[in-house]
Design a protein that fits this description.
Length: about 100
């Protein structure tokens, strides 16, 4: 009788994975000026994204208006399915 739970998968005849040669870092072949340019552009993008709110306020306003008007499609079974999928870390569109 097999125990309940997971057990390691072992297939006869398969060799263990052998480590490969170390991979060179990207920065090893890049000039310091190029690395600084990339770093400064990354900082600029980060600051630009931090300046904007993480929420699309226009979309939120449209959804709120649709809910108030009664034109937003609220399907309780779909909401329940999505909440359960989120809680159980399922993909909501997976086949049952």
């Amino acid at each position: 009788m097999d125990p309940i739970g997971s057990k390691p998968i072992a297939k006869p005849g398969l060799a263990p994975v052998t480590p490969t040669a170390p991979v060179a870092r990207v920065a090893d072949g890049v000039s310091p000026q190029a690395a600084e340019t990339v770093r400064s552009s990354a900082v600029a993008v980060t600051r630009e994204m931090a300046a904007k709110p993480p929420v699309d306020t226009e979309r939120v306003a449209r959804i709120k208006k649709a809910v108030e008007d009664g034109s937003f499609p609220i399907v309780p079974s779909t909401i329940a399915d999505r909440l359960l999928a989120f809680k159980l870390n399922w993909k909501p569109d997976d086949a049952a």
